[in-house]
Input
Amino acid sequence: MIRVAVAGAAGRMGQTVCEAVEGAPDMELVGRADPSLGVELADVLGDADVVVEFTQPHTALANVQACLAAGVHVVVGTSGWDVDAVRGVESSANVLFCPNFAIGAVLMMRFAAEASKHMAKAEIIELHHDKKLDKPSGTAARTAELMEGDPPIHSVRLPGIVANQEVILGDVGQTLTIRHDSIDRTSFMPGVLAAVRAVGSLTESPVVGLEHVLFDD
Ligand SMILES: NC(=O)C1=CN([C@@H]2O[C@H](COP(=O)(O)OP(=O)(O)OC[C@H]3O[C@@H](n4cnc5c(N)ncnc54)[C@H](OP(=O)(O)O)[C@@H]3O)[C@@H](O)[C@H]2O)C=CC1
Ligand SMILES: O=C(O)C1=N[C@H](C(=O)O)C[C@H](O)C1
Output
């Protein structure tokens, strides 16, 4: 059994992750850390093999550092923090940061990267719910990083949306649109569980992107 603790357990993602972990036959939920539950990450680290981190841009780095100091592997979904800050940190534990855990979003990023090699220009439009704190989204920033030509990013924040992204590529007389829609937070759960299963076996750390877990190439 993989013993899993969740940081941000009372949040939109954290609650969904707790349910997914409780439903996974090979995992045990051993801790829920969140200010609104009165439980700090330090209180649950001792019981966990893996922490799943879905908090806020300004809290993620300290939580990841605490996991590394305690030798507990950490799967991070929080966007808007600097993963480079944990490069070179000595630890027996690994960091796996996935800007987006939805398989369709991972494929969208891959297809956009490939298309950008062949079309003249591109722009990214990301659309999220209006409670999202960071802008641009982690997915859009990562997509732009993977693409050629430094595409501009446009951010939309509105009630009624979960998470959508369009990458529009243009060339003479044509456009290509690659779009992904998460209509429910359960879309991220198979990816989160795959990351929890894989993080302890990574041969380097930190690793960025679920594609390193899902695909051979
Ligand atoms: N990679 C991916 O696939 C996805 C990533 N995300 C990202 O995940 C993050 C969380 O999103 P979401 O669940 O919607 O946000 P929420 O605001 O709903 O949840 C964040 C939770 O973390 C809590 N929290 C704050 N500080 C700490 C701390 N130091 N330790 C533990 N918990 C803490 C918050 O408590 P309080 O409110 O009391 O401060 C809140 O309950 C965002 O950065 C979002 O962009 C979201 C969806 C998918
Ligand atoms: O805040 C969200 O909801 C999401 N955040 C991630 C991001 O910033 O890309 C992943 C997904 O888009 C949902």
Notes: Residues 103-116 form the longest helix (14 residues).
